[in-house]
Design brief:
The complex is a heterotrimer of chains A (about 280), B (about 300) and C (about 375). Helix content of chain A is about 75%, strand content about 0%. Chain A folds into two domains: about 1-40; about 70-280, MetI-like fold (Orthogonal Bundle), CATH 1.10.3720. In chain A, about 50% of the residues are buried. Chain A contains twelve helices and no strands. Chain B is mostly helical and about 300 residues long. Chain B folds into two domains: about 1-45, no CATH class; about 70-300, MetI-like (MetI-like fold, Orthogonal Bundle), CATH 1.10.3720.10. Chain B has helices at about 1-5, 15-45, 65-70, 75-105, 110-125, 125-140, 145-150, 165-190, 195-205, 210-240, 240-245, 260-270, 275-300; strands at about 50-55, 60. In chain B, strands 1-2 form a two-stranded antiparallel ribbon. Chain C has about 375 residues and is α+β, with helices and mostly antiparallel strands. Chain C has two domains: about 5-235, 3-Layer(aba) Sandwich (Rossmann fold); about 240-365, Nucleic acid-binding proteins (OB fold (Dihydrolipoamide Acetyltransferase, E2P), Beta Barrel), CATH 2.40.50.140. The chains are: A mainly alpha (about 280), B mainly alpha (about 300), C alpha+beta (about 375). Chains in contact: A-B, A-C, B-C.
């Protein structure tokens, strides 16, 4: 009896410790974003008070207005959007049939090919710095959206293919056969069973591709030097490089850049986690 | 028999046509990958053995000259060492934080989803945004970190987190850990799901204390996940670029110039494409060694 | 009208032949069970009828149509899978309606059929649920329902009950039989469980190693097995096989077991067995055809013998007693009160009218 009670007490203590620790950790995780948001609404004068004034007394949208009135930033947001959606569409278009062919059709060596495709993910991006630069300049693709899309595909394609192949592999063959007996032809079986069943995985892969392209910085920095094709992360860095760094504007821009990633992620969180748990390697 | 028959492909006799069809489906992808991955990777190997003259834009075969140049360069060796510290520091911190959070998540039931979601935020955050956030937090005069520590009395005057050679590396590693611990956390959390409740109860019956239970039951079960997590975070640490280049650009005094930055500077500051390509190969080999070690460890089990 | 005809149907996987040129005709509305051990080719045969597996050689006709190269969707068949194969993202209603929707039935007709099938199966109030909210038995019903609504020419069942627990299996067995009586369609059912085969089938097809061993009614299979394999496969507990020889004593004919035991062959069988006298044969006798002499007086054609009881297994209604005849383990089903402990000497009676004589060279029952 006493032993049991002490065990219950210990369990309660353990739970309290776990929740306490997680609350602290969650605070540390969220704090930078909170601080970013607080800063972005603060008028510039309050930046220099000492000690720092954490909560502003005069909320302002001035920084956002300044950022959104900046044609370079707007253009870069548009570029980011175009690059990301194109990369997502092309990645899915190429990786869905490939994953289908390499898993559902049971080709010899299909698994080996998949592993090879995925292992290209272990190449450091630095080995692409120079070759991509030369290839893109040869084909007049420096400073173009297409050039960036091409560079990003080298990262998104292997991961998307792997993710989708993993979900495809988990679909029982009997389900496909049931659909055939139910009266489906090849195409309808693929659409109504294989794709329908793996929708969560496909959405995850698509999100992955979008997020990767949206936040990518290295290739965008190296291969775009004019506002024509520069994406938002590069422009953000450009704000930084100015003589007098305007942190208020920078934070407002960072908020705007983060929203398109964090909001859908929060919505899709369950799918996203599932996909990464299964076969995700890169994030 | 029914079990195997059920998992057999539908039309196995036409094996050959199906093989062709399978690769036909994969063909567009394979072509694009050949152009976007294989070709540049091989091209990089070729470039490593050539000399590039930025003025005349002429290529000249250089043999091993680029590698010799690296060997003789003190900056290369500086980066080499900085990278090692960077990698080890990141693994250690990410593993510690990731494991602690994973264990905590595993022992709760309510709000588990919510907490997991919050913990994943850094991972999906944009590198550039993270870099800017931490630049702002570390800011010597306007930064909230100094403000907080001053208020708490932990420091007496503002600290130059990123501007002092002694602290810059550590500050960067902390920021990078914030960004990457979720990857370790989620990998270990998945591993923790395999820990058998029965084994834990058996240990309970045997009178083991929580620490012994962790060592005898939990740890051996999640060991494969730990090595996977270590592999992933090692590769990611080696491949780092965005955070350091925005936050310190390798400074102060090259104290944070990891190999990624060194390669970047070789290529796009000094336009020494050959040396950059050669150095990226050296980096690649280091990663290969890590992967090999990982496979060896897996083999042993 | 759908009879199913298989002519010299053959299936090869690579170099191994899984189904050897089998011939089988299944008349309209018959319930046929393909039964056999794992790997005997029964499932492959069913899947060839369904069109899920190519035919290496031979012909399959459904009704009057040669279906060799016809995809499953055009064969007008319905199939119930071992794993149920329900679409997990769809409700029960959608699962059952899917095959009709694909075939563009009008909405009202779909509704009528799904509801009718749901009524037959007693799943009317589960139509809005998803498969994962159902128990194994309920899922099985949905899988059957999906087949019923199609009103197909041929129903195929691939081990549909093997994922259910024993009690549910018995219950679903009865229901499947009822369904056959109600929808009166040709049904082909694959199982490895001979009890399922015996209880469900109008005709049983026993398969072994890719060949058909015997085709017949359940009663045929039990009383007149054609081969040693069928004799041993059908019936539970399994038939005993004891090495023996036929000793010809002029008018009398005896089954000689070991040194001393000779059991007389009943008059009706003497002419059939005489040809085998002097050769070493196998005596096949079911446990339920060995009685104890205490409660069972030997009648005509029944021969007394003595044993020393080995392991004794009381089953309640009667008792299994294990013993040896000529160093071969044999089992008999005796009255519960006839034997109580190991080592007891026991007087037995063997019903020679139900004996089988097997030629070990051909494994055929003679």
């Amino acid at each position: 009896m006493a032993r049991q009670r002490s065990k219950r007490a210990r369990n309660r203590l353990r739970l309290a410790l776990a929740y306490g620790f997680l609350t602290v950790a969650a605070t540390v995780v969220v704090f930078p974003y909170l601080w970013m948001a607080l800063t972005s609404f603060k008028p510039i004068e309050e930046f220099f008070t000492y000690p720092l004034q954490w909560l502003s007394e005069n909320w302002t949208l001035g920084q956002y207005r300044a950022v959104l009135e900046d044609p370079r930033f707007l253009k870069s947001l548009w570029n980011s959007f175009v690059v990301s959606t194109t990369v997502t569409a092309v990645s899915l278009l190429l990786s869905i049939p490939a994953a289908y062919g390499l898993t559902r059709l049971r080709v010899r060596g299909g698994k080996g090919v998949l592993v090879m495709i995925l292992s290209s993910q272990f190449f450091p991006p630095m080995i692409f710095f120079v070759p991509f630069y030369i290839i893109l300049s040869q084909f007049q693709l420096l400073n173009t959206i297409s050039g960036l899309v091409f560079a990003y595909l080298s990262v998104t394609l292997p991961v998307c293919t792997w993710m989708i192949a993993t979900t495809f592999r988990n679909i029982p063959y009997e389900l496909e056969e049931a659909a055939r007996v139910d009266g489906c032809g090849d195409i309808r079986t693929i659409l109504e069973v294989v794709l329908r069943m793996s929708l969560p995985g496909i959405i995850t892969a698509g999100l992955f591709a979008f997020v990767l392209a949206w936040q990518e910085y290295i290739f965008a920095l190296l291969y775009t030097t004019t506002t024509e094709a520069q994406t938002a992360p590069v422009i953000l860095f450009f704000f930084l490089g100015q003589h007098q760094i305007d942190y208020g504007r920078l934070m407002a821009a960072a908020v705007l850049l983060s929203l398109p990633i964090i909001v859908p992620f929060m919505v899709m969180q369950r799918y996203f986690r599932q996909g990464h748990g299964e076969g995700g390697v890169k994030g | 028999m029914t079990a195997t028959a059920a998992s057999l492909p539908p039309l196995r006799r036409r094996r050959h046509t199906w093989i062709a069809k399978g690769y036909l489906f994969a063909m567009p992808l394979l072509v694009v990958l050949a152009l976007a991955v294989l070709l540049p990777a091989l091209y990089n190997v070729v470039i490593a053995f050539f000399d590039y003259n930025a003025m005349t834009q002429a290529w000249r075969f250089a043999g091993l000259k680029n590698f010799v140049k690296l060997w003789d360069s003190p900056y290369f060796w500086n980066s080499f060492v900085v990278t090692l510290i960077w990698v080890v520091g990141n693994i250690t911190l990410q593993l510690a934080v990731g494991l602690a959070v994973a264990l905590a998540l595993n022992s709760i039931v309510r709000f588990r989803g919510a907490f997991t979601g919050i913990m994943m935020i850094p991972w999906i955050s944009s590198f550039v945004v993270v870099a800017i956030l931490f630049l702002w937090i570390y800011h010597p005069q306007l930064g909230v970190l100094n403000d907080l520590l001053l208020r708490l009395g932990a420091i007496e005057r503002p600290v130059a987190w990123l501007a002092s050679p002694e602290l810059a590396q550590l500050s960067l590693i902390l920021a990078n850990t914030w960004k990457f611990f979720p990857l370790v956390m989620i990998t270990l959390f998945a591993g923790l799901q395999d820990v058998s409740t029965e084994q834990l109860e058996a240990a309970d019956v045997d009178g083991a204390n929580p620490f012994q239970k962790f060592r005898m039951v939990t740890l051996p079960t999640i060991m494969p996940s730990i090595s996977t997590a270590v592999l992933l975070s090692t590769i990611w640490a080696y491949n780092s670029f965005t955070l350091p280049i925005i936050m310190t650009a390798g400074g102060p005094l090259r104290a944070t110039e990891i190999l990624g930055l060194f390669i970047y500077k070789q290529a796009f500051d000094s336009f020494d494409f050959g040396a950059a390509a050669a150095c990226s190969l050296v980096l690649f080999v280091q990663i290969l060694v890590v992967i090999m070690l990982y496979l060896r460890v897996l083999d042993k089990r | 009208m759908a009879k199913v005809v298989l002519r010299k149907v053959r299936k090869e996987f690579g170099s191994s032949v899984v189904v050897h040129d089998i011939d089988l005709t299944i008349p309209h509305q018959e319930f046929v069970v393909l039964v056999g051990p794992s790997g005997c080719g029964k499932s492959t045969t069913l899947r060839m009828i369904a069109g899920l597996e190519d035919i290496s050689a031979g012909e399959i006709h459904i009704g009057d149509t040669l279906v060799n190269d016809m995809p499953p969707k055009d064969r007008n068949i319905a199939m119930v899978f071992q794993s149920y194969a329900l679409y997990p993202y769809a409700t029960v209603w959608e699962n059952m309606a899917f095959g009709l929707r694909v075939r563009r039935y009008p909405q009202a007709e779909i509704r009528r059929r799904v509801e009718a099938a749901a009524d037959i199966l007693g799943i009317r109030d589960m139509l809005d649920r998803k498969p994962r909210q159902l128990s194994g038995g309920q899922r099985q019903r949905v899988a059957i329902g999906r087949a019923i609504v199609r009103d197909p020419e041929v129903f195929l069942f691939d081990e549909p009950l093997s994922n259910l627990d024993a009690k549910l299996r018995v219950q679903m067995r009865t229901e499947i039989k009822k369904i056959h009586q109600r929808v009166a369609t040709t049904m082909i059912y694959v199982t490895h469980d001979q009890v399922e085969a015996m209880t469900l089938a109008q005709r049983i097809v026993v398969m072994n190693a890719g060949r058909i061993e015997q085709i017949g009614t359940p009663q045929d299979m039990y009383e007149r097995p054609a081969t040693r394999f069928v004799a041993g496969f059908i019936g539970s507990p399994a038939m005993n096989f004891v090495p023996c020889s036929i000793s010809d004593g002029g008018a009398e004919l005896g089954v000689r077991i070991g040194e001393s035991l000779v059991l007389p062959v009943p008059a009706g069988r003497r002419d059939r067995y005489r040809a085998y006298s002097g050769r070493s044969m196998l005596l096949g006798i079911r446990p339920e055809h060995c009685f104890d002499a205490k409660t069972h007086q030997p009648a005509a054609g029944q021969a007394p013998f003595e044993i020393v009881a080995g392991v004794v297994e009381p089953l309640g209604i009667d008792t299994m007693v294990h013993f040896e005849l000529a160093a071969t383990p044999v089992c008999a089903r005796v009255n519960s009160y006839a034997v109580s402990s190991e080592g007891e000497r026991l007087a037995m009676v063997m019903d020679m009218n139900n004996m089988h004589l097997i030629d070990p060279q051909t494994d055929k029952v003679v």
